[in-house]
């Protein structure tokens, strides 16, 4: 009996030793945040640990943003609600004359077509007898009136018909991320980017948080389609020569450890909080994760480092979340995830302890079975 008891004790000891090295899908919080030690045993840290609590949220929000492009946007600037003649447009002028001995028409003719004529870079067109006339900046109707006034100075009965086709400088180009990409003429000077998207068949389905980009001259502006739709004042008035494209949001974050899903996740909206991120990844593993040990690992560039609290002190920063307190939960809902962040759920020490006790119980039952 004593021998069996000794065997049982030895078996339990072996199980305890084996349990200490049980395979785990994530590290303990203490392991992840442990210091490195040199040959002399001196501890050092190459990262900082920052708790996500109400007391520090404003401070973190003021730190330099990382992982995303900083593009401005242009607010709506209404123009005249009519078409405007611009350099590069093509115009066709038809002059009607009822006089028998007209300067423009031949025998039996009552009209003469002049054009198409391209409006010069200075906004001028040249016509016989009236020579150069500046029409850029005028509506088509006003340009017709001006030309008719000039012609009636030499042909009293002249009547003018005016037609215009927008040139490259009166068109906008739309490519990528829409139903019907192409070049679109500006219907008037109040033509906006949402009107263009609607005319092009709307944004392509299946894009994660689609982003719109406006190229004007040498500048690039950008915002999300969702923000554009929710803020009418941002419905930018287009200019001739603008180039627009829609693309998927390129931002992402990762999830590892005792999470519901270990993967790369696209940003589904402009702002993703830590709570949003946990919902996106399917939460944490109920039987494994430590709810007091949720970590967000972020790498800051050297340009973001600060020594006065207005930025991180070291490049590598670990933000810690405690989901077992009200302050921790509310704070997680206001803490913003940045592109490239790693959301890491550490393993709960309690899980390992429960596994050990389970192994002990199984071993004890096995010994009893052998004894009987």
Give a brief outline of the structure.
26% of the residues lie in helices and 26% in strands.
Description:
- The chain has helices at 2-19, 29-32, 54-62, 140-152, 193-199, 225-230, 274-280, 326-334, 349-371; strands at residues 36-37, 43-44, 47-51, 90-96, 111-118, 124-127, 131-134, 159-165, 171-174, 182-185, 211-216, 219-224, 243-247, 252-257, 263-266, 289-299, 316-321, 342-347.
- By secondary structure, the protein is an alpha+beta fold.
- It folds into four domains: 2-24 and 354-371, no CATH class; 29-67 and 251-348, Outer membrane lipoprotein wza fold like (Roll); 90-165, wza like fold (2-Layer Sandwich), CATH 3.30.1950; 169-247, Outer membrane lipoprotein wza fold like (Roll), CATH 3.10.560.10.
- The longest helix is centred in the last third of the chain and has 23 residues, at 349-371.
- The chain is rod-shaped, with a radius of gyration of 36 Å.
- Residues 353-360 have low confidence and may be disordered.
Low-confidence regions: 353-360
Structure class: alpha+beta
Major beta-sheet overview: 6 strands, mixed
Q: What proportion of the residues form beta strands (DSSP E)? A: 25-35%
Number of helices: 9
Helix/strand order: HHEEEHEEEEHEEEHEEHEEEHEEHEH
What's the CATH topology label of the largest domain? Answer: Outer membrane lipoprotein wza fold like
CATH arch. level architecture of the largest domain: Roll
Q: Please state the overall shape, judged from the principal axes of the Cα atoms.
A: rod-shaped
Overall average residue pLDDT: 85
Number of strands: 18
In total, how many domains does the architecture comprise?
4
CATH superfamily of the largest domain: Outer membrane lipoprotein wza domain like
- Terminal residue distance: 12 Å
The residue fraction in helices comes out at 25-40%
Q: Strand order, main sheet: write it out.
A: 3-17-16-18-14-15
């Amino acid at each position: 009996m004593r021998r069996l008891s000794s065997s049982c004790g030895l078996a339990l000891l072996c199980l305890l030793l084996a349990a200490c090295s049980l395979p785990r899908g994530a590290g303990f919080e203490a392991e992840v945040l442990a210091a490195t030690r040199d040959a002399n045993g001196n501890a050092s840290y190459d990262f900082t640990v920052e708790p996500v609590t109400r007391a520090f949220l404003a401070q973190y929000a003021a730190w330099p943003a990382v992982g995303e492009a900083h593009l401005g946007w242009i607010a709506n600037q209404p123009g005249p609600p009519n078409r405007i003649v611009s350099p590069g447009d093509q115009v066709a002028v038809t002059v009607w004359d009822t006089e028998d001995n007209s300067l423009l028409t031949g025998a039996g003719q009552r009209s003469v077509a002049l054009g198409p004529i391209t409006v010069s870079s200075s906004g001028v067109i040249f016509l016989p007898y009236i020579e150069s006339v500046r029409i850029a900046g005028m509506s088509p109707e006003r340009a017709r009136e001006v030309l008719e006034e000039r012609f009636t100075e030499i042909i009293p009965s002249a009547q003018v018909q005016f037609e215009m086709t927008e040139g490259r400088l009166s068109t906008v180009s739309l490519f990528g991320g829409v139903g019907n990409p192409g070049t679109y003429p500006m219907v008037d000077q109040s033509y906006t980017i949402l009107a263009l998207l609607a005319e092009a068949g709307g944004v392509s389905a299946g894009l994660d948080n689609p982003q719109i980009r406006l190229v004007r001259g040498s500048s690039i502006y950008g915002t999300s389609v969702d923000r554009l739709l929710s803020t009418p004042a941002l419905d930018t008035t287009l200019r001739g020569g603008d180039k627009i494209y829609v693309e998927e949001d390129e931002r992402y974050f990762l999830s590892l450890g005792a999470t519901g899903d270990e993967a790369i996740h696209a940003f589904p909206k402009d702002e993703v909080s830590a709570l949003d991120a946990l919902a996106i990844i399917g939460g944490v593993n109920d039987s494994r994760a430590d709810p007091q040990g949720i970590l967000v690992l972020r790498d800051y560039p050297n340009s973001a480092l600060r020594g006065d609290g207005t930025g991180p002190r070291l490049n590598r920063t670990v933000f810690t979340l405690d989901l077992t307190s009200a302050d921790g939960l509310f704070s997680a809902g206001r803490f913003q995830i940045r592109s490239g962040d790693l959301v890491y759920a550490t393993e709960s020490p309690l899980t390992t302890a429960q596994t050990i006790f389970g192994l002990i119980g199984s071993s004890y039952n096995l010994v009893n079975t052998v004894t009987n």
